[in-house]
Amino acid sequence: MGRLRSTRSTPEGYSAKDSTAAGQWWPRGVFPTLPPADARRSDFQTRHKTTMTKLTPASRKKIPTGEFALPGRRYPIEDEAHARNALARVAQDGTPAEKKTVRGKVARAFPDLKQGQ
Question: What would the DSSP string read from start to end of 60-75?
Answer without folding.
Answer: HHHS-GGGEEETTTEE
